[in-house]
């Protein structure tokens, strides 16, 4: 049975393939080739991917990612599409679902929304709930650098506190849009912000996310 992560993986691969290697993305300074290399290294080179979390290893990560970015683009896309090697932790369905559902959703939108002709994607209710469930668990971590109090609210009224404090800005939107917002894609997320004007401006320019 297909999982959310597997579906998002295939969608990301399709978007990367259609965009080509030199298309813009929402990731600052990255073209599609760089984004594809990042995804492949994260799944296939855990020794280098540790640099995503441990800053002393960031230089090694950058070097290895550049090596992968130099590979044929079609090869990178195919590695994403086929998934991690059999012995990778990501090859386990439970880990893939937990670690990659949001990762691939965000990166797919990084490709889609950087194009001039992008259109909103309709997210089905089951997937929307899956994104919200994950968002509730990590909201505090993703919003920890918010300079103001930050509350995330679904259209149905359910909320998650991403940062305590005052003044408070409430961001309302569908779970997918809220996910993009707290992952640092504020300008691309289709949400409504309520709060003091200065607080809203600070939040829009804040460095949110991991």
Mean pLDDT: 91
Total strands: the figure is 4
Largest β sheet strand count, sense and barrel closure: 4 strands, mixed
The Rg value, from CA coordinates, equals 17 Å
Which sequence of SSEs, written as H and E, runs from N to C? Answer: HHHHHHHEEEHEH
Instruction: Indicate the low-confidence ranges by residue numbers.
Output: none
Tally of separate helices: 9
Q: What is the beta-strand fraction?
A: 5-15%
Secondary-structure-based class equals alpha+beta
Distance linking N and C termini: 30 Å
Q: Helix content range of the residues, please? A: 40-55%
Biggest sheet, spatial arrangement of strands: 2-1-3-4
Q: Tell me, briefly, the overall form.
A: globular
Write out key terms for the chains shown:
210 residues; 4 strands
Describe the structure in your own words.
This protein has 210 residues and is of the alpha+beta class. 52% of the residues lie in helices and 9% in strands. It is built from 9 helices and 4 strands. The protein has helices spanning 4-19, 32-44, 46-49, 58-69, 73-82, 93-112, 125-142, 175-182, 197-204; strands at 149-153, 159-163, 168-172, 192-194. Strands 2-1-3-4 form a 4-stranded mixed β-sheet. A hairpin with a 5-residue loop joins strand 1 (149-153) and strand 2 (159-163). Helix 1 (4-19) runs antiparallel to helix 5 (73-82), helix 1 runs parallel beside helix 6 and helix 2 crosses helix 4 (58-69). The chain is globular and about 50 Å long. The two termini are 30 Å apart. The model has no long low-confidence stretch (mean pLDDT 91).
